[in-house]
Amino acid sequence: VAAPAALLALLVGTVSVEGLAASGRGAHRTRGRFPGVIGCHHGRVTNPEDPIDWRALAEEIGADPNRGGDAIARRAITSLLGDEAMRRAVDWYVEGRPAAEHARSVLRLLRPDAARSRCLEIYRTDPAPERRHLAVELFRVVARAEDLPLVGDLLADPDPAVQLWGMGVLDRLLWDGHVDADDAEPFLRMAERHPNPKVREKHTDLRAHLEPHE
């Protein structure tokens, strides 16, 4: 049975199936950066049985070593996996590879900066409409409060599907508690006057759910 760390590395696309099968022999390399994560640490292969240096990890993520919590845990896991793993997880999802939903679930839990930036990079530069759509769909589950202004960009995009996913981003930011109704109001007004009837329909639904809470 593969070690949990190796399975997680497979999930985010930093090690191949063949590498995972070889993990018991120590024959594969991933991009983990701390002892305890199967991978390459400062240019050498680490032993998966070595303990994680939690003090060094706390320093790496800029956290008080005497405090904990879910937010710190997410930052720690993201740091252990590395930015490249997060970017590859986005690619894995956008490409529709096996267990893509697992990658999406991990990204939704961690909301790493590297994944957010990769989603936006694909949306802004990829020539394939389907990849752009999937990137924006994924972006909605990793977006944070500071991403709210991007809703306006998505609503202004010429692609109707992107416009609709822009409303999905706004919806998710509201219902995950990252922004409140007052913050969202300028974008709700944009949606109310939007030329895309599906965007206006989404606006009506969103307003209806907001009203009891306003």
Key terms:
214 residues, mainly alpha, two-stranded antiparallel sheet, 12 helices, 2 strands, globular
Global outline: globular
Q: Major sheet: order of its strands?
A: 1-2
How much helix is in the residues? 55-70%
Radius of gyration: 20 Å
Low-confidence stretches: 9-45
The helix-and-strand class reads mainly alpha
Distance between the ends:
51 Å
What is the overall pLDDT average? 82
The fraction of residues in strands falls at under 5%
Query: Based on DSSP secondary structure assignment, what is the total number of beta strands?
Result: 2
How many strands, what sense, and barrel or not for the largest sheet? 2 strands, antiparallel
Q: What is the assembly state of the chains in this entry?
A: single chain
Number of distinct helices: 12
Spell out the helices and strands N to C: HHEEHHHHHHHHHH
Brief characterization of the structure:
By secondary structure, the protein is mainly α. The chain has helices spanning 4-12, 17-21, 54-61, 70-81, 83-94, 100-110, 113-125, 129-142, 150-156, 160-175, 181-192, 197-210; strands at residues 40-41, 44-45. The termini are far apart.
What does this entry look like structurally?
The protein is an all-alpha fold. Helix content is 62%, strand content 2%. It contains twelve helices and two strands. The protein has helices spanning 4-12, 17-21, 54-61, 70-81, 83-94, 100-110, 113-125, 129-142, 150-156, 160-175, 181-192, 197-210; strands at 40-41, 44-45. A two-stranded antiparallel sheet has the order 1-2. A hairpin with a 2-residue loop joins strand 1 (40-41) and strand 2. Helix 5 packs across helix 7 and helix 7 packs antiparallel against helix 8 (129-142). It is globular and about 60 Å long. The relative contact order is 0.08. The model is unreliable at 9-45 (pLDDT under 50).
